[in-house]
Structures are given as structure tokens and as C-alpha cells.
Amino acid sequence: MGLPALEFSDCCLDSPHFRETLKSHEAELDKTNKFIKELIKDGKSLISALKNLSSAKRKFADSLNEFKFQCIGDAETDDEMCIAKSLQEFATVLRNLEDERIRMIENASEVLITPLEKFRKEQIGAAKEAKKKYDKETEKYCGILEKHLNLSSKKKESQLQEADSQVDLVRQHFYEVSLEYVFKVQEVQERKMFEFVEPLLAFLQGLFTFYHHGYELAKDFGDFKTQLTISIQNTRNRFEGTRSEVESLMKKMKENPLEHKTISPYTMEGYLYVQEKRHFGTSWVKHYCTYQRDSKQITMVPFDQKSGGKGGEDESVTLKSCTRRKTDSIEKRFCFDVEAVDRPGLITMQALSEEDRRLWMEAMDGREPVYNSNKDSQSEGTAQLDSIGFSIIRKCIHAVETRGINEQGLYRIVGVNSRVQKLLSVLMDPKTASETETDICAEWEIKTITSALKTYLRMLPGPLMMYQFQRSFIKAAKLENQESRVSEIHSLVHRLPEKNRQMLQLLMNHLANVANNHKQNLMTVANLGVVFGPTLLRPQEETVAAIMDIKFQNIVIEILIENHEKIFNTVPDTPLTNAQLHLSRKKSGDSKPPSCSERPLTLFHAVQSAEKQEQRNSIINSSLESVVSSNANSILNSSSSLQPNMNSSDPDLDVLKPARPNSLPPNPSPTSPLSPSWPMFSAPSSPMPTSSTSSDSSPIRPEEVVHEDSSTPFRKAKALYACKAEHDSELSFTAGTVFDNVHPSQEPGWLEGTLNGKTGLIPENYVEFL
């Protein structure tokens, strides 16, 4: 388990947890600093003492072997694991060279000692200076705040306003210093992964050139050296990307910290001064308080920021009421009284400001009026995964693959923004979207087309791989075994909605073609992962922890590109569990797969002319004449029970009425037993089976059977997998079980069938129809 990420939003709260996390990072920096000093000392003695070379090398090797990297986050990438074990690899090499006593390399000081000293002085030294400044500002802010809160409310208004302004300035300065310190600590922790290891690698490379007898050892070390060099470069590239993201987030936090607060499990939290009665009178003790509205629990933790330790035991009470304290009833400002269910008497608390008191009162349902200052910051994208969207992506891909597949820096070099927006406006025009998919003129540069493709994907209302699966994809990328990663991602891809999966398949096939030409365009699979990871798998909330996971987003895209044929063209080995299906059918309609009645063929969705409509009806009527005549009586008798289930999403469609038993309606319902649009049921991840004689205009599907005593098509189906029922309405069965009377249910993604005389629900993608 690595170090926890330092969130910028915690700087504003300055909670005990934040302080403890900051201490762990400071301890890690101190340990790194001490280790670097020791390493430099060992290196100098190695250079200066040729006679003691063997002992110095062993000590140096032991130092390397004992040190372990601590990465930020709960998992490491393959590159980070490679870098983390590099020190142990170096130690092994040095031990093998102990018997080979040859002169010390001439430039060891330049390639090893100087960079380490530079890193220690410039990076770790800067972090120490930032810590001193942070500690000084903490003490200054707490002192001024206590002095300010002790001001009597009876002083002149001008004096109070001046004091408030002074506290606001000091608070803002403290907040900025805190953000800068956290940013510097994060930066040093990341830099050490490559600025610390790279000099050691150069030092070892120099040794090999001077050791004649180490030639064979250098050959054996070559593979790991190549892998480590790539890992260092990848880590450096990821650092550059994440550093800019973290710096951007820090600037946003400076400009408007309230809009970037971390989602907290508590309704309200922060510091309050609580009045406590003592033998010699009353005193005000600083507490870090949290309040949960659902349980009405108030937790008070006595904590002093200056000392960094607790001042007593935690206390929790259940809120009964909250009342604002009048100014003339107490000398302190910003006070309010809390009455608890499980504690006698009133608890008088002092907030840090009038606004802070208002927020606490609002959270506790006090007498202060409730203001809802939350803003809906969700931006709705104009792009959609519709026919226009697929047309745009196909046009861009066709232009790239026919005109610019070998351009260097493909997708990495961005186009001019104004040109990109102009191209998108042309492509998104419904008039031009219906044209051929190769109509992007040659006047548009390839970098403009690639930027338009990426911009359109970013304009979607949500990422292509969806917010709800983002964490699952990241967890899959963190699995240790590559085969497990591919298998888990394979399964997750087939849980995406159909249009998302189709668009992702289209894009991955294209990116695989781009990667196959990497010798010309220099865009390897890893480079494409860096470009498309944040676009296709961006997180819903922008935090430091999310930025640190960008490297795993890139790994997911790499796996999709390298295994695109298997992932998109085959069904996952392990199907969704019954519990997952049960949860999926309880979600909102936006995330549900469409049910049978919601998936009529296009034939009944299009608005047709009177001539085409008449021609279509004549074909259907003639094709179904025999069926209608043989089943007219049963249809007439059962038509009254059909009507509640024959609603269509298309307002232009009519339902089958009992007054017309001997003929088809002009526009049959998609769920009508005589409608040619009743869909075939199959697993969502496999293609829909079709008959060689069936088409959109075919009168009836040969697999469907209409019973004389029923108005609904029934079919037999066989189970592909075993399933254990979790609810009374579901059926339990084993692989190979055959069901009777299988037909669509009211639950999307589920069928209804009969097994051994019992009728119940069956997962749709667990069966195939016979």
C-alpha cells in the first residue's frame, strides 16, 4: 500500500486526517533525503578508494537493496514496479562485480554524484523550505484567528470590519501557502522515481565500459536495462502529463476553492470552538466537528493545529435542536447553541465567521434561513452516439487511413482550434452528415481531422467507456497478471451499451491500424494510450487521486488496442452474474438495455409516404393471409387481452383492434404477434441470429410459433450457463436446461419461461433459442 494522495481540497479544511497524511509524506521525504546523503557518501568513497573498492561496492549494493520505493496510490504500474525493483537489480550486479577489481571509472562523479546532489538540494531542499514557510504561516494564522475571535462584539463596527479583513487576508495567504506546499511535496515524490534512478543507471553504464571481464554480465543486464529505460521514460512522460494536470487543478482551487471541494460523507465539517465549564470559569476549546444529517450525529474531536495532536477524547452526541445565539447574550461572535438528546444542557459553539455559522446552522436545520448555493455545473455535450456521430467518426477515420496513416505524431499533434471547430460544425450539420463517408475534403489537414475526432469524443455527454465503469476498468488495469487484465476488461467491454461498444470497436480497430504503422508515424500502442486514455476513460470528479490514475487509463487503452480482435469479436468466458443482472434491471431507464417492445425494426419507425405505406401493407397482408385466416378466431377472442401490452414508443403507430380480426392494421404494433418486427432474443454480446430468408420486410420469422390458445409467440430455449435464483420470481437452472413457453417479460434484459411447471424470470443473455 503506497502513500495516500494529498488532495488540494483538504488544504482548506486542514483536518487532522490531512495533517497525518502530510506527516507521512514528510517522513518519506526525510527518509529519501537521508538515503541520498548516504548514497552520495558511499559513491565518493568508492571513487577515491580503489584499494577498498570491494568493500565499498558491497556497502553501496547493500544500501540499494534495502531501500524500497513508496509510490502514491494503491497500486503500481508495470513501469513503476520495474523502477521499484531496479535498485535490487543494481545491487545484484554490484555484488557480481566484487571480484573484478579494475580501476574506478573516471567520470563517476559527474554522472552519479552531481545529479543526486542537485536533486537533493534543488528538490528536497525546496520542499524543506516550503515546510518551514508552511509551519510559520500555520502558527501565524492560528494566532491571529484566536486573537480575532477573542475580540469583543461591543467594539466599534469599523474596528470589527478591519479585524475581519485582516483575518481574511491571513487566511487566504495561509491557504495559498498550504496549496503550494502540498504541490511541492507531490512533485518531489514523483520526481524521485526518475531523477534519482537515472543517475544510478548512468553510473552502472559507465562501469561496464571499463570492465573487460564484465562484458558477459553487461550482456545479461542489457534486457533489463532496456526495459528500465523505457519504464523511466514512460514514468517521466506520465509525470509531465500529471504534473500539468495537478498544477491546473491547483490553480482552479486557488481561483474558486468552493467549487472543487471533495465530496464528503458528512453534511458539514470543520473547526469550531466549544465552550467548556471549568472550576475557574469557562474556556473555549478548539474542536474539529463533523455532522451527519441522516443520523443527526455530531462528533467533536479536540485538536490543536499548532501542536498537531489531540487534546482529549472524541465525543459524539445526537442533535435535538440548533439555535442561533444572539449577539447581546454573549461576548463572543458567531455563536450558536446546540441541544443534544443524550447530553444535558446546551452546548455553545463558536464558528470561525458569520458565513461559517450560517452553513452550520443550515446543515443542522437551525433558525437561519436555508440557501441553496449549489450550482449545476454539469455541462451537456452536443455530441451524441447517433447516426450522425457514427458518420463523423467514420469519415475522420477514413480520411486518416487513406491520406495520413504515416504522418509522424498522428493524434499527438493537435490542430488549430478554430479550424477544428469549423470542421466539426460542418460534419455535425444534419445536411452534410447524410452524405457519403468519404467527403472530407483534402483541404483539411490531417492534424485538424484527428483533433476533430478527439474533440467530438470529448463532447459526448459522458465518456465513451462511461463513468459508472471507470473505476472497474482502472481496477482491472491494476491486476498483477496480464491475462487477468485482458479477461476482466473483455468482460467489462461487453457490459457497455451497444452503441458505446460499437463506437469503441470502430475506434480500436482504427487505432490498431495506426499502431501497425508506428515505424512511420512513431505512434506506438503506448503513445496512443497516452493520447486516448483521458478522453475515453475520464473520471467524473477531478481530484489528485484521479490524476494519478491516468497511467492506468492508458494501460486500459493499450490492452484494448492490442487485443481488439478478441475483445470485440468473441464473447467473454465468464458471463455476468445473476446478482449483476438483478442490479442492472433496477437502475434508471437511461442505463437499461432496451426491452423487446422498445426495439422494433426500423420499418415501423420511419415516416413513409402514402404510396410506400400502401405497398408495404399489401405485401404484409398477402404474406400473412394464411396465418390470419387460420387464427382469426383466436386473435379475435384474445385481442382484448392484447391491448394493454401493445403500446409502442412511436406515436404514429396504432394497435390491433378487435373490430378488425380478419386483416392486419395499417401500422401493426411492434409487439403484435403478427408484426414482422418482433425481435429475436439472444445474448447481447453475440450477433442477432437471422434466417436466410428473413429481412426487414419479411412477413414472419420462422422460429416463432403462435399457439392457438395464446396471443403471444412462444419459443423453446436452452440454457448456456448455470444460474442460481436470488429472488422468488427467478428460476434456478443448470447449463443445458430446456425451457418452454419462453417470451419477453416486463423486465428489460429478462425473459419469462416455464421449467417443470413453474414460470419465472430467466436472464436474457444466459439462453439461446432453439
From TrEMBL:
Q: Which Pfam families match?
A: BAR_3, PH, RhoGAP, SH3_9
**Keywords linked to the UniProt accession:** Cell junction, Cytoplasm, Cytoskeleton, Endosome, GTPase activation, Membrane, SH3 domain
Cellular localization per UniProt: Cell junction, Focal adhesion; Cytoplasm, Cytoskeleton; Endosome membrane
Compositional bias ranges of the Pro residues kind: 663-673
The protein's matches in PROSITE patterns, at most eight in alphabetical order, are given as:
PH_DOMAIN (PS50003), RHOGAP (PS50238), SH3 (PS50002)
Q: Low complexity compositional bias: what residue ranges?
A: 638-649, 674-699
Q: Which residues form the SH3 domain?
A: 712-770
UniProt lists compositionally biased (Basic and acidic residues) regions at 701-710
Outline the segment boundaries, as ranges, of region: Disordered: 638-711
Where's the PH domain?
Answer: 265-369
| Primary localization | other
Return the Gene3D superfamilies for the record. Arfaptin homology (AH) domain/BAR domain, Pleckstrin-homology domain (PH domain)/Phosphotyrosine-binding domain (PTB), Rho GTPase activation protein, SH3 Domains
Question: Transport as a keyword?
Answer: no
Q: In what residue span(s) does the Rho-GAP domain sit?
A: 383-568
Among PANTHER family, the record links this protein to: OLIGOPHRENIN 1 (PTHR12552), RHO GTPASE-ACTIVATING PROTEIN 26 (PTHR12552:SF4)
**The protein, known as:** Rho GTPase-activating protein 26
Q: What is the lineage of its organism?
A: Eukaryota, Metazoa, Chordata, Craniata, Vertebrata
